[in-house]
What we know:
The structure is a homodimer. By secondary structure, the first copy, chain A, is an alpha+beta fold. Chain A has one domain: (Glycosyl)asparaginase (Glutamine Phosphoribosylpyrophosphate, subunit 1, domain 1), CATH 3.60.20.30. The first copy, chain A, is built from 9 helices and 13 strands. Chain A has helices at about 1-5, 45-65, 70-85, 125-135, 145-155, 170-180, 240-245, 250-260, 265-280; strands at about 25-35, 105-110, 115-120, 140-145, 190-195, 200-205, 215-220, 230, 235-240, 285-290, 295, 305-310, 315-320. An 8-stranded mixed beta sheet of chain A has the order 4-3-2-6-5-1-12-13. Chain A has a 4-stranded antiparallel beta sheet with strand order 8-9-10-11. In chain A, α2 runs antiparallel to α3. Chain A starts with a helix and ends with a strand. The model of chain A is unreliable at about 1-15 (pLDDT under 50). Chains A and B meet through β3, β4, α5, β7 and α7 of A and β3, β4, α5, β7 and α7 of B.
Amino acid sequence: MKHWLLAAGLLSLAPAASVPQRPPFMLVVHGGAGTIRRQDMTPAQDSAYRATLTQAIRAGYDVLRRGGSSLDAVTAVITVLEDSPLFNAGKGAVLTNAGTVELDAAIMDGAALRAGAVAGVKHIKNPITLARLVMEKSPHVMLAGDGAEAFAKEQGMTLVPQSYFYTERRARELERIKAAEAKQRAHGTVGAVALDQQGRLAAGTSTGGTANKRWGRIGDSPIVGAGTYASDACAVSATGAGEYFIRNVVAHDICARVRYARESLEQAAREVVLEELVAQHGDGGVIALDNDGHFTMPFNTEGMYRGSVGPDGQIVVKIYRDE
Amino acid sequence: MKHWLLAAGLLSLAPAASVPQRPPFMLVVHGGAGTIRRQDMTPAQDSAYRATLTQAIRAGYDVLRRGGSSLDAVTAVITVLEDSPLFNAGKGAVLTNAGTVELDAAIMDGAALRAGAVAGVKHIKNPITLARLVMEKSPHVMLAGDGAEAFAKEQGMTLVPQSYFYTERRARELERIKAAEAKQRAHGTVGAVALDQQGRLAAGTSTGGTANKRWGRIGDSPIVGAGTYASDACAVSATGAGEYFIRNVVAHDICARVRYARESLEQAAREVVLEELVAQHGDGGVIALDNDGHFTMPFNTEGMYRGSVGPDGQIVVKIYRDE
């Protein structure tokens, strides 16, 4: 229709009214925030992180570019990051005090306000997939522990042994943290927010939680409103010291400020991450995206693995604060 | 100072400026919302519910009247309700599909923005006490399952066998629900919000979750922001079909509307419970209290066990919609 009007000279070609070349879509990704400093990274490490982030973003981009859903894009991104030993999620998850892994994940479909989450699962290779099955195939939002794994089996998922998650690096890290009496808090999380060509927002987060954690601790990642949230207007995935993100209901608070206080997404995210959390010493960061494709990635730590891609296909990846 | 000014005739005695007789405090309690109809209750059942609610409210009132904290008041109220076989929490918890109990609870200190929560515990007589220990004695906000019970033991709590929770009534209910193929969703929760004489708000919620639940399902009660939330301005405890309360981040959304949209507490709570949840068929209700002692108790079901008390000591208890 628009093409016909253009051809007939009935529609102007003024930039403001022009038909966009490609429908807008957007993908923003994080791989955890923390004490990530240029001087502590070898060039090989730096490259490895950038390469995996790029690969993850490309997987999500491929979904969005061909008209796929933001849910599929978020799932695709997080699956790549869960399968990498570099990030604290899936394969690369940190170890608990008992030397095991306990994984948390959540996914939320902002358009339909549906969500799924799992907490404390030990034999699930891709917790984001299980979170999505909880959303799509159960009447519940959140399942935990053995029960969540029983549901996974009923859904035909293959469980993996704990040995799948064992990496030399995480074992050494746990020893180091135990020796330092938990002074160092290793955390990290992976997450993605996406807007698809149908204008639907989605958010997802996956994590191994805090290294050396005990007592079945659940962090903010699988908690809808804290580490993960999406509505029809706003999507957020968080990473950091989860307890602060739970108490401040960070992901929902950012979206509530946009909805009720008419703050811009950037104002809202900065206020929460750089003011409120900083005042409480709550380390971390967020990625946030609105339904116009605007996004922001504030963090109050030395670095955050992060990146984005839009319709032009230019994948941007950053790690340090000064990038 | 005010007394001196009054004596010197420098301050008027107009009611608006008068010094209140007693510092304000307020306590609001619920015992679950659902299909609670006058015609389905015997006079003996009606009296038993009212008596236990009154006893619980009196326990909280005694704390607040003598200057105790809102946290202690919330804990006292919920402990009485957990110890009663009438309500779906503690002793009276509904049974899971496996015929066991799995209990969830959370407590939040609005003044300090601290919170504690437990999910899926099976041997804890008073989950609200364990939630409080998580808040006060652990670096975490939320603990689940066996890990949470290990923490309870380390804190010196005595674990009870599952047989403690067994009641003939819940066993029959589970059989009935299984026979009806889960058509009837029995839920229910207990909760309290309190404002103490120091102006500090607190909220707490405790539940057995949904009868016949499976797969380690976690409902909204232990999720900060969903079923339980308190800030320095607003405290909420919810009851109902938990999945809807999680997706809508109900407790935090009510407080966010008050904070950012300048809605009154009543407007905010009614909008969320009577408009947004109703549109989604999300059954339930909330109790909400602000730091002026204003409270509201909207629900979209046929009844909600509920009550309140203020400085005058008049305990009000209601069950049905037409009260």
